[in-house]
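Assess this today:

___
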Amino acid sequence: MRSRSTTTWFLALLHLIVFCNITGVSSLSFKLNFTESNSNGAATIQLQEDAFYNKAVRLTKEELDGQITHSVGRAVLADPVTLWDSSTGELADFTTRFTFMIKARVADGSYGEGLAFFLSPYPSVVPKNSEDGNLGLFGSSSADQSSETSNQIVAVEFDSHKNPWDPDDNHVGINIHSIVSVDNVTWRSSIKDGKMANAWVTYQASSRNLSVFLTYKDSPQFSGNSSLSYSVDLRRYLPEKVAIGFSAATGQLVEAHQILYWEFSCTDVRVVKSKKAKSLLVISLTTSVSGIVCSMGLVWCFMSLKTKHTRRARKDQGKQEYDESIDGEFEKGRGPRRFRYDELVAATKNFASERKLGEGGFGAVYKGSLKDPNLTVAIKRVAKGSTQGKKEYISEVKIISRLRHRNLVQLVGWCHERGEFLLVYEFMPNRSLNTHLYDSSNLLAWPLRFKITVGVASALLYLHEEWEQCVVHRDVKPSNVMLDSSFNAKLGDFGLARLVDHDRGSQTTVIAGTMGYLAPECVTTGKASKESDVYSLGVLALEVACGRRPVVLKEDDDKINLVEWVWRLYGRNEILAAVDGRLDGALDEREAVRLMVVGLWCAHPDYNLRPCVRQVISVLKFEAPLPSLPPTMPVAMYFAPPIHLCRFSYTSSDDGTLMKELEGSGVYAKTTTTISSSATNASSSPPSVRLPEMGY
């Protein structure tokens, strides 16, 4: 067995040496059908700004999001494309075909602005103030274009509205470093009808010719005859590695921009083409053979020693596991990727304490600095002592890696080696909503509070209704709402999330979530549903408006429970008295009333009487009237929970709450519940010191 293993290692190494001297990397090619429910296309691209996925890549806001004017979005390939090679001067040929639809909101009304296929420096960065006729490609002022790479864009635009620099309303144009097209042709569009268009964009390196062909035929064959072409040496205008994708924008005039299908192929400029290079390769290979033969003995000895110590090394490093079956589930598409353990150790300086951002539901979160790509990230390290850690790790990656929405935390990658399970997320510089709500040194202003709540609701709308399956989050709370540099809400921590069919919408499971945000029917029946997520959203809305936690033991008896207290004020027409006093009246009272009444509506004890998230957004956007709620909080009746769902052990925490572990099933539930003050005082154990929870 040992001899056979050694021979296999040696032959594999020899084959690799020869193979690497003869062949180059294959050309890039892919086909993505975004309309298929089982498509991995959404995981292959990155969505920026307002772009989202729902059975098509939708580049700008649509009616489900409410206000849809002045929207910008991009969808780009997650990996860079090598356009040319500076060492050889070789320039790639490429061809891309895509099916798209631009549809006017009103058939007989005005619309705008259009979409574009573009190439830009990698990674793709959306300029500020790039809405309206800028198509998300260029900023509208010199201040927005101060970066050296801000204008380095080559694009093919499908423009639907005439701006001062445009030749007419509907036209196809080729743009180089400017929103003003260097060449264009009139486009007999079908925007009012919302028909599907097929476009080809090709580039021939030999002739430096960039060509565009467009048709509305269902499945035409590209004949090579272009409807528009322009001669350009892309090496003069773009770096070696580029981002490719689509961009769109609306202004006061709106329309829907959807990408339904995308295929792309590109030659590999790293493959040596010239006869001279081939001759040099033959000479190099010939002179290398003697060295390879002479090295056989040394390699054989080395591999023999390696085989001898393999068993011992495996025993000593038994924790260094690499579960290929898990990778098979995860590595679908070019979005999140697997990282090596040593990469993440280096990124966090060996998980240094000063790098720790906080404690999550089943592990600690660290700030990391990756070298490839050059990116600041948040790295969640699953607690080794958590029996549920691996299950939640797999659940989170399998769900969140397939989701794409501007209000969801983006997963960058994962790692499972040496007994460790790690998740890599985009870094949120403003940390969690929980941090800002209770940071006395930095009061969260009202406009941001309202914006954040609407953002969380938009995330839930996507999870519940807009994605191919219904996703029940099961742990919506401020510490799981992360904030980017612009204080946009990003819902995270999908360790407890579950996929259910849209027609079912619920799943009976062990109790999971956080007490105070956990719907009463979840506690009594173990039923997690869209309605239970809505309940959590309602509590979060009240917490944001009132600036206090769902349960506060030190308050007067009638104020301990947030929902009950606000409902009593609502019944007395004094609901504004519940607003966070630290705001000192600096708020929009109409928004405050709406936010709190919607919060009560969502937290209705009877789940049948709660709104769906779409209704929540309509009311918060002032597009629907406020609901009429009873002046007294109703009491719903539920059956007692099954015994096997309710076996808890308790450990105290520092804020008067109890953390529970479900012993019967071995499932760590991340639940909290309040205890009486007498029980707290009776405890002989001092409170533990915990870092803040982070919703990654």
In short: Residues 291 and 495 are 53 Å apart (CA to CA). The longest helix spans residues 275-316.
